[in-house]
Specification:
497 residues; Rossmann fold; DNA Cyclobutane Dipyrimidine Photolyase, subunit A, domain 3; 3 domains; two-stranded antiparallel ribbon; globular
């Protein structure tokens, strides 16, 4: 009998090696690797989410009649070897993992690897699109995706006469005190309790709050969250998707990425739900298009780049950033209100939305010069939706410009003015976003100008940076700014900022 090996990011009955299979035809293998859980400082909710989702999927398969070998082993490879020794399968078949290193592991151990179908665009199709291009832009990929799939297209033209509605989706936080629907929660049960006992035993350095039911660990729970998002939240998504508020952790974001990343949801059903709501006039086109762009544009672009550029991409550090991960990111004290808020959100639920990741945490790491590998490892282990394929391009390419511009057309660096405009954090912060020197100057503002000066040689060839570099050269107090930046970076490294 063949064995179908299901990995922890493939928890879907109708995908990959399980599609079309029936009980009695194959045996299913699921391995819980104790080394994987011990390998990082995982967030408790991240570890619980993956482990509980795996175990509930096993129960669903067994209820359907499949024989499932759920095996706890030191490593995935050891679990596979033990399974082969006990059952002598004719062959072991698995769907390609989402990550490059996972695929390498399967190939080393002579597993028959089927293509991954958890995306709309396969890695091979992406490589075909990218072939021969002198440069790549996500916008070009997104339009290609729309054209070939027919998503939001009418007779070959984009719905509404425009490819995107970004100019309508970058409003600052609302001033009317509006709130968004509360996130759904699942009641925790005996399975969750057992999983948490195992998490505490297997992850000695785990951090963060214990699970509270925010993250569903079944397909039914994931579908309920998709339905709530489309019906109650998506109509509000577009205008304030870049805003940050202290009292609204999710705002109008979907928070569906964890379910997409382990197979509980598929991107096709997610965008179909959004399109149906738009066609029924329940969602404005700016919100529908903005959300769909994140799913079939950005998410799939990141996936394609990961497969095209690995494994060399992992060591990218074009700006030679060498600062250690700031203690503030690990829960240490900080006077930076926006950073404290983002880190508190990670502690509480293992998740903050994309602007807090990019323009607060990533921006500070970029302008301060934090080591890219340290930032990748931290974000990979800290976020419920973290994964190698997600974090490498997003952190190295988008947030830290560590690949020298292969992915992003410019560094996403900004001073405190951006955070002040797009959030309500600066009002009670002791730092002034308008100042770049002095003890009360916003570190983001100081570090922004110092970043430009420190990396002028590396950035002067980027035509999108000409105005910023020109403004930097005109600063009469640049020497004082750079002197202050040295102090800020030192205090950031020591955990006293």
């Amino acid at each position: 009998m063949d064995t179908v090996w299901i990995l922890g990011d493939q928890l879907r009955r109708d995908l990959g090696a399980l599609r079309g299979r029936h009980p009695g035809e194959v045996r299913v293998l699921v391995v819980e690797s104790t080394a994987k859980f011990a390998s990082k400082r995982w967030h408790r909710q991240r570890a619980h989410f993956v482990l509980a989702s795996m175990r509930r999927f096993v129960l669903e398969l067994r209820a359907e009649g499949f024989e499932v070998d759920l095996r706890v082993a030191p490593t995935l490879a050891t679990g596979l070897a033990e399974h082969r020794a006990e059952f002598s399968p004719t062959q072991v078949v698995a769907m390609s993992p989402m990550s490059f290193s996972g695929r390498q592991m399967l190939e080393r151990h002579e597993v028959i690897v089927l293509p991954n179908d958890q995306f709309i665009c396969t890695a091979e199709e992406f490589a075909g699109w990218a072939s021969g291009r002198r440069s790549m832009r996500m916008e070009d990929f997104y339009r290609w995706q729309r054209t070939r799939t027919g998503v939001l297209m009418v007779e070959g033209e984009p719905e509404g006469g425009r490819w995107n509605f970004d100019d309508q989706n970058r409003e600052p936080p609302p001033s009317d005190g509006r709130s968004w629907p509360e996130a759904l929660r699942e009641p925790l049960d005996a399975i969750d309790a057992r999983v948490m006992l195992d998490v505490e035993r297997r992850c000695p350095s785990a951090f963060g709050d214990a699970p509270d039911g925010t993250w569903a660990t079944t397909r039914a729970g994931a579908l309920a969250r998709l339905q709530q998002f489309v019906e109650e939240v998506l109509p509000l998504f577009g205008p304030h998707e870049d805003a940050m508020l202290r009292n609204e952790w999710k705002l109008a974001h979907s928070a569906l990425s964890p379910y997409l990343n382990i197979g509980l949801l598929h991107p096709r059903e997610v965008i179909d739900a959004a399109i149906d709501a738009y066609r029924a006039s329940r969602v404005p086109i700016a919100s529908a298009e903005g959300f769909i762009r994140q799913v079939i544009g950005w998410r799939e672009y990141v996936w394609g780049l990961h497969w095209m550029w690995m494994p060399q991409y992992r060591t990218s550090n074009a700006l030679d950033a060498q600062l250690a991960l700031p203690p503030a990111f690990l829960g240490g004290p900080t006077e930076l209100s926006c950073v404290a808020h983002a880190v508190a959100g990670i502690e509480q639920r293992g998740w903050v939305h994309h602007i807090e990741r990019l323009m607060v945490l990533g921006n500070l790491a970029l302008t301060a010069g934090v080591r890219p590998d340290a930032m990748v490892e931290w974000m990979w282990a800290s976020f419920v939706d973290g994964a190698e394929w997600v974090m490498l391009p997003n952190v190295l390419g988008m947030a830290l410009y560590a690949d020298g511009g292969r992915m992003a057309t410019k560094p996403y660096a900004s001073g405190g003015a951006y955070i002040n405009r797009m959030s309500d954090h600066c009002g009670d912060c002791r730092f002034d976003p308008k100042k770049r020197t002095g003890t009360d100057a916003c570190p983001f503002t100081t570090l922004y100008w110092d970043f430009l000066a420190r990396n002028e040689d590396a950035l002067r060839g980027n035509n999108r940076m000409g105005n910023q570099l020109g403004s930097m050269r005109k600063l009469k107090d640049l020497d004082a700014v750079r002197e202050r930046a040295v102090e800020i970076r030192d205090r950031l490294a020591r955990g006293t900022l």
